[in-house]
């Protein structure tokens, strides 16, 4: 058989063997892949939202505020009440009341004779007419309380999204770090084999070979640390999203850079208009202002009307009275309370002023926070660009050093330094890309742009 035909057959056999090995490897890996559930950033957010107890508590507070608002509106409606009273008078002498004496006759045994008594029953409706504006103010407070509960939910929602995103990207960055350390170990392993051959041929002293071995051992240790970092990052994320067996999940997102620009001053304006903290403090100021009206109303005249019916029943000589209608009005006028009203008004006014100062201080701090995150984003973009350039240059330097090493112009130490420098640049890029993703979410949270559907 000609040699060329044999070579072609050998190549075909080798290709078939490779294909068989690939298929067998895939079959061995597939069960593990099927056993793992894939998680993305969005799915982790959804799991965190459904698991977080603080968010559930905030949702309950919305329902509570809604009930309080409905309760406050009831103050506009009349209150209807019923009452009944029974009176027994065993020592009452009816002879003292003209027309109520029992006629004389044959002696009647006293056994079984009931004592005189009266039973009254009635139903009344009371309607407030004027309360000094108290009912209206209380209703406005309840309405503001409902809005504040929604803003508190929004605040909890935004903080949870930020926390989840940061934990998720920490996992992705840690996994990228493991890939880098594995590649670095493989690179050093290859270099160690090369150094072993050169040492066996007598081309290098043992000390040069040992330098590579020591560096490889250190790299293996760094790989173990990187794998532990992945485990810890996943554990922290698992606590946020509410999963117990973190080994059943795989994370699919990768670190990538998408350039975008931000306007810091525009972000400050948006944040001051949309941040839940500012809205909460604004509503708190308004509630304190309404509290002043409530306090003032307590010392104004109160007017109400009443209507209803009564029935009176008497026994043992007491006449029954037909059902009667009752209509009336009440006026309550505070006269003198030792200047109590003025002191309460002063307290309410001071609380309002304190709330205004808190709002102004929060506005300043929020402005600083937005600017700080904006500057960090700009700095991070430059860091990514510099890290990418550094990696390119470090790769070129490593290739040049390897060539020079093969020619005897560079030492083993210089090769190891070039490899280590490339690894450091790659880690810096991973860190910068991770920070970029985290800062993007922080920017959205700081400017009040993480929105959620309102809870009903």
Structure description:
With 456 residues, the chain is of the alpha+beta class. It has a single domain, classed as Outer membrane efflux proteins (OEP), CATH 1.20.1600.10. The protein has a four-stranded antiparallel β-sheet, with no helix packed on it. Helix 4 runs antiparallel to helix 9, helix 7 packs antiparallel against helix 8 and helix 8 packs antiparallel against helix 9. The chain is elongated, with a radius of gyration of 42 Å. The protein starts with a helix and ends in a 10-residue tail after the last helix. The relative contact order is 0.12. The N terminus is likely disordered.
Beta-strand fraction estimate: 5-15%
> How many domains comprise the coordinates?
1
Approximate shape: elongated
Q: Remind me, CATH topology?
A: Outer membrane efflux proteins (OEP)
Task: Give a summary of the structure in a few sentences.
This protein has 456 residues and is an alpha+beta fold. The chain contains nine helices and six strands; from the N terminus they run H-E-H-H-E-E-H-H-E-H-H-E-E-H-H.
């Amino acid at each position: 058989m000609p040699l060329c035909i044999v070579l072609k057959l050998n190549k075909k056999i080798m290709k078939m063997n490779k294909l068989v090995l690939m298929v067998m490897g895939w079959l061995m890996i597939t069960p593990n892949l099927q056993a793992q559930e894939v998680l993305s950033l969005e799915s982790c957010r959804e799991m965190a939202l459904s698991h977080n107890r603080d968010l559930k508590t905030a949702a309950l507070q919305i329902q509570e505020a809604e009930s309080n608002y409905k309760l406050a509106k009831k103050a506009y409606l009349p209150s209807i009440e019923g009452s009944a009273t029974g009176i027994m008078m065993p020592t009452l002498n009816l002879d003292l009341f003209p027309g109520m004496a029992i006629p004389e006759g044959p002696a009647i045994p006293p056994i079984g004779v009931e004592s005189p008594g009266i039973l009254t029953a009635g139903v009344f409706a009371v309607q407030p007419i004027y309360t000094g504006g108290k009912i209206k103010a209380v209703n406005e407070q309840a309405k503001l309380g409902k809005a504040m509960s929604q803003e508190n939910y929004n605040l909890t929602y935004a903080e949870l999204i930020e926390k989840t995103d940061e934990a998720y990207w920490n996992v992705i960055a840690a996994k990228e770090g493991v890939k880098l350390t594995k590649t670095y170990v493989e690179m050093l392993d290859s270099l160690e084999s090369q150094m072993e051959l050169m040492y066996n041929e007598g081309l290098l002293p043992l000390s040069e070979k040992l330098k590579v071995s020591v560096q490889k051992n250190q790299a293996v240790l760094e790989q173990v640390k990187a794998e532990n970092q992945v485990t810890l990052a996943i554990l922290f994320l698992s606590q946020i999203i509410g999963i117990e067996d973190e080994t059943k999940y795989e994370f699919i997102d990768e670190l990538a850079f998408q350039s975008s620009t931000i306007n810091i001053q525009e972000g400050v304006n948006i944040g001051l208009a949309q941040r839940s903290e500012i809205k909460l403090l604004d509503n708190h100021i308004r509630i304190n202002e309404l509290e002043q009206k409530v306090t003032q109303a307590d010392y104004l005249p109160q007017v109400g009307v009443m209507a209803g019916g009564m029935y009176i029943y008497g026994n043992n000589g007491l006449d029954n009275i037909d059902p009667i209608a009752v209509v009336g009005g009440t006026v309550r006028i505070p006269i003198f309370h030792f200047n109590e009203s003025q002191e309460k008004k002063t307290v309410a006014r001071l609380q309002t002023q304190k709330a205004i100062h808190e709002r102004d201080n929060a506005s300043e701090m929020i402005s600083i926070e937005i600017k700080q995150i904006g500057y960090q984003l700009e700095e991070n973009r430059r860091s990514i660009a510099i890290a990418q350039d550094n990696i390119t240059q470090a790769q070129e330097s490593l290739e040049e050093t390897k060539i020079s090493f093969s020619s005897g112009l560079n030492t083993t130490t210089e090769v190891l330094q070039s490899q280590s420098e490339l690894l450091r640049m790659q880690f810096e890029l991973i860190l910068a890309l991770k920070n970029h993703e985290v800062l993007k979410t922080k920017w959205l949270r700081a400017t009040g742009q993480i929105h959620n559907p309102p809870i009903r």
